[in-house]
Write a structure and sequence with these properties.
heterodimer; A: mainly alpha; 4 strands; about 70% helix; B: mainly alpha; about 0% strand; globular
Chain lengths: ~325, ~290
């Protein structure tokens, strides 16, 4: 699962390929694309969804693509972020920026709890344990009706205007909402790019490539895994918090294991272990969903079939395949 | 706690065993497939669900429950054979995650196909007439059908044990689970063995789905819930260990049943707490070999 990695740098050649250029300026390119993106979409709500799920997949990809561990429990991280953001607004009356911070903290903390338990197992166990633990989180939030609204979801996250340095910004306007959320997503892209370019980012990939060698080189493999999982939780928590603000409600389905499966599909479709893959996967997946839903209600059948075809014939994903061409 | 007599607890224990029996059947199929093919079958819940629906269909066209007990595992097993041959076989040697991802996609397709064929809402599933009612088991009256579930599970386990321990094909399966390369060197067609093991595992899943149907009714989503719970069973029992799956399956059933007696709202969460404890104390599970999962 490791053939498509951007950050393995080729020796410098005189001609700079588009691929090398894209790697060096990856966060800026992502920012530029995100800024013009809503102009290409049929409606802004879809563009906002793509941003949020792209961010969710970006966080997931840190564990799946770069660390090489398949997690089937990321819904718990995404969902906890959304719920904590919602609870901070509905029950505690916190301002929107504090609520987003609460969401990120929730994602980090939940990732720490799940990570400490799941990191004890390795390989294929990891997928099963993370899935089971996220199912446990689902039941816990389902039961805590007073706090989460249980089956009905958490309602009443009404953020109409947001105050920014004395400016009152209308959060209801879809275009403005898009750019507010985009600001967070772009910031997340820069942070992610920085993490991957750092020595720690290299250790993450070293652990994926060869655990024994990483350990022999003196790196604490278990700690690296845990830390990466927790970082991933922060990104997913942020995505969840933005989702809560965007939807004004947190449905309990956000914690369902299908939300975990969704991000696996998006990451694989876009190209796991690549920087742009998750966002491209989210865009293709959600646009496709929008088109297919018009003529059939059985969208899940198409999703499953596409996913099977991806696994069988197209495991590098869209961006991964393009990179493989670009490197040639 | 005055109302909680010894009899009530004993009855609840039996109810837990009946529930556990379904977990056991589900988990041994999962464990058998993993132990042999190192494939985590995420579609196992979907096979279980389709098993229940095939039973529902056969009864609606005039079959009875007893013919279903034979026909459903055969149908699901054949379907499993086809899935292994066509979809999973190309993925061997491409990393342990790919078959898992593929079966996950497959479960979406299977669930949606059942929704198209039978509708999104669930159906009740009648308990066969002979097995309705309750019998006195010494501590009180216990539903006959649940007793039958425990008995049927014991029969399947015994048959599987005899097959694995006493037949030459079972010997090959056990050898293949230990070291497929040596088995291949000895001239055994391992891919054929894997095919058959996948068929057996899915057949047992279909059988479990049929047995569970009269207890809970059938809905397209019934496989998803039990899949997560069966993962708990395999983690607690030790992945790839059939003995572990039996013990852990019964234990999980009893834990669910006991917590629903004392703290009903915690029943679903309790088994995950059990898993968390096992992960901290003994990460490889009861019967798992340390380091097997690396």
């Amino acid at each position: 699962m490791t053939d498509a990695t951007e950050s393995i740098k080729e020796p410098h050649t005189t001609t700079v390929s588009w691929y090398e250029f894209a790697t060096r300026h990856r966060a800026s390119i992502a920012a530029a694309v995100i800024l013009v993106f809503p102009l290409l979409m049929p409606f802004t709500a879809l563009a906002v969804n793509i941003l949020i799920y792209g961010l969710y997949a970006l966080g997931f990809n840190l564990v799946f693509g770069y660390l090489g561990l398949l997690s089937f429990g990321h819904a718990a991280l995404f969902g906890t972020g959304a719920y904590l953001c919602g609870i901070a607004i509905v029950h505690l009356g916190w301002p929107w920026y504090a609520a987003i911070a609460a969401g990120v903290a929730g994602g980090l903390l939940m990732a720490l709890v799940i990570g400490v338990l799941a990191i004890r197992t390795r390989g294929i166990y990891f997928a099963m344990v993370t899935m089971a633990l996220s199912q446990c989180v689902y039941y816990l939030f389902y039961q805590a009706v007073d706090l989460t609204g249980g089956e009905n979801g958490l309602r009443g996250i009404n953020v109409r205007t947001i105050d920014l340095f004395g400016l009152r910004i209308d959060f209801i306007n879809p275009m403005i909402r898009y750019y507010v959320i985009a600001a967070f997503v772009i910031a997340a892209f820069f942070v992610m790019s920085r993490i991957l370019a750092s020595p720690f980012g290299a250790v993450i990939e070293a652990v994926r490539e060869n655990e024994m060698r990483a350990r022999a080189s003196g790196y604490d493999v278990t700690l690296t895994r845990l830390l990466t999982f927790v970082l991933s939780g922060g990104f997913c928590g942020l995505a969840g918090a933005l989702q809560a603000l965007h939807l004004s409600i947190v449905p309990i389905e956000i914690l369902h294991y299908e939300t975990s499966g969704l991000v696996v599909m998006i990451a694989l479709l876009g190209g796991m272990g690549t920087f742009f893959g998750p966002m491209i996967g989210a865009a293709v997946f959600l646009v496709l969903e929008n088109i297919v839903s018009v003529w059939t209600v059985h969208w899940q059948l198409i999703v499953g079939a596409i996913f099977i075809a991806c696994v069988l014939f197209f495991p590098a994903g869209i961006w991964g395949t393009l990179i493989a061409r670009g490197k040639r | 706690m005055a109302g909680l007599s010894f009899d009530l607890i004993a009855l609840q224990l039996f109810a837990g065993l009946a529930l556990g029996a379904i977990y056991v059947l589900f988990a041994i199929g999962l464990s058998l497939i993993f132990g042999m093919l190192t494939v985590v079958n995420f579609a196992h819940g979907a096979f279980y669900m389709v098993g229940a629906y095939v039973g529902l269909y056969l009864i609606s066209i005039g079959g009875n429950f007893w013919t279903c007990l034979i026909a459903v595992p055969i149908v699901i097993g054949l379907f499993g054979l086809a899935v292994e041959r066509v979809l999973i076989r190309p993925l061997y040697g491409r990393g342990i995650d790919y078959p898992l991802l593929l079966t996950f996609g497959l479960s979406y397709v299977m669930v949606e196909c059942v929704r198209i064929a039978f509708g999104k809402t669930g159906y009740p599933f009648d308990t066969p007439e002979v097995l309705q009612g309750a019998v006195d088991i010494g501590v009180g009256y216990f539903p006959l059908y649940r007793l039958f579930v425990i008995g049927a599970t014991a029969v399947v386990l015994l048959a599987l044990w005899l097959f694995l321990e006493k037949t030459s094909f079972g010997l090959i399966i056990r050898a293949g689970a230990r070291d497929p390369q040596i088995v291949r060197v000895l001239g055994v067609d391992v891919s054929r063995v894997w095919l058959i093991v996948f068929g057996i595992g899915t057949a047992i899943a279909g059988f479990a789905g049929l047995l569970a149907a009269p207890l809970q009714g059938v809905i397209p989503e019934m496989g998803g819930t039990i899949l997560a719970e069966a993962f708990v069973v395999t983690v607690v029992g030790g992945m790839g260990s059939i003995g572990g799956a039996v013990l852990a399956g019964l234990l999980v059933g009893v834990v669910v049943s006991m917590t629903s007696l004392f703290a009903p709202e915690m029943a679903k969460v309790s088994i995950f707490a059990l898993m968390a404890i096992v992960l901290i104390v003994r990460p490889q599970g009861f019967f798992g070999r340390a380091g097997l999962m690396s």
